[in-house]
Amino acid sequence: MAKENHSSTTEFILIGFTDHPVLKNLLFLVFLAIYLITMLGNLGLVALIFMDCRLHTPMYIFLGNLALMDSCCSCAITPKMLENFFSEDLKISLNECIVQFYFLCFAETADCFLLAAMAYDRYVAICSPLQYHTMMSKKLCIQMTIGTFIASNLHSMIHAGLLLRLTFCRSNQIDHFFCDILPLYRISCTDPYINVLMIYIFSMPIQIFTIATVLISYICILFTVFKINSKEGRGKAFSTCASHFLSVSIFYICLLMYIRPSEEGEIDIPVAIFYTIVIPLLNPFIYSLRNKEVKNVLKKMMRNHILK
Fold first, then answer.
1. What are 21-51's pLDDT values in tens digits?
2. Which of 119, 63, 77 is nearest to 242 (CA)?
3. Of 9, 41, 146, 307, which cross-links 284 as Cys (Cβ 3.0–4.6 Å)?
4. What distances in angstroms separate CA 20 from CA 24, 26, 78, 85, one per listed residue?
5. CA 80 from chain center: how many Å?
6. Angle at 289 between CA 286 and CA 294, to 5 degrees
7. Element (H, E) at 174
């Protein structure tokens, strides 16, 4: 009988928003609007960076890839969530579940590396401006970007592949709006010890490395900025990394809250909404509205388009 139960659960029911049937239509419209704005903002930023040669610098190459990963994250989560607002069965197959988690994990891991690379870029720009083109060459930038995607792909494949070793007989209901590993571990009949161990072996070092890179870079930036005598010089230095600092702070606060040890997952959904849906929405606005170069390029392109 146990074997039948183990093999029978190949579909799951996502019940993340079923507690709010009255708000179904409103939530659908809100998340649809967020999704459309997110895709327009991020892909628009990617196109802007690609089309203008003045933005072909390491910082903007990293930013373009970050926007691309935010689009990937949004595409992995939001369409299925929107479909489930009007779906009667709320089902997702095990294979769909694994694919969804793979792309989410890939995008979030790449975000960690890209934010760390951007922090290092700001450190070099502010602390060693005369050596910037040597220490942060386009070649190194491309190598870092390729390395980011290779590492993110391997990391995602490990965790997604390990989901295949789990069997599910306790329940087929996932108390979430997408397939994430923590809710899946809670309904698994198989001891997820190996899966959890892989989180400590692979995921934790990535978090430690990227957070340490960001912290060390900003500590060095602060020491350098405080040595600047003029207020104007300090203000310029702070404005150079203000957008990145805001973005990286929001991202890591949400991520660390989400991956904390927890059995019940009582705040999984609110935090997950923020780091999978809201952050990809905010990033293009954080980087474009506070960035003179991006605004100038956008104004120029709009002016040229109107004149044509």
1. 778 888 899 999 999 999 999 999 999 888 8
2. 119
3. 41
4. 6, 10, 17, 10
5. 18
6. 105
7. strand 173-174
pTM of this prediction?
0.89
d(CA 215, CA 150): 24
What's residue 4's pLDDT? 43
User: Cα 222 to the chain's mean position, in Å?
Assistant: 26
How many residues in the chain?
308
Which residue ranges in the chain fall short of pLDDT 50? 1-7
Contact 180, 80 (CB under 8 A): no
What's the rounded Cα separation, in Å, for the pair 121 and 97?
Answer: 36
Chain position carrying tokens 């104004």: 299
pLDDT given for residue 123 in this prediction: 93
Query: According to the model, what pLDDT value does residue 290 have?
Result: 65
Which helix (H) or strand (E) segment holds residue 93: the answer is strand 91-93
- Amino acid residing at 251: F
- Residue among 124, 119, 145 at smallest CA distance from 246: 119
Residue with tokens 């709320």: 90
Question: Distance between CA 265 and CA 102 in Å, rounded?
Answer: 21
Residue given tokens 């294979």 in the structure block: 95
Residue 15 phi, psi dihedral angles, 5° rounding: -110, 20
Angle value at C-alpha 252, between 294 and 139, nearest 5 degrees: 50
Count Cα neighbours of 149 within 13 Å in the Cβ-side half-sphere.
11
AA identity, residue 215: L
Q: Which residues, at least 6 apart from 40, have a Cβ–Cβ distance to it below 8 Å?
A: none
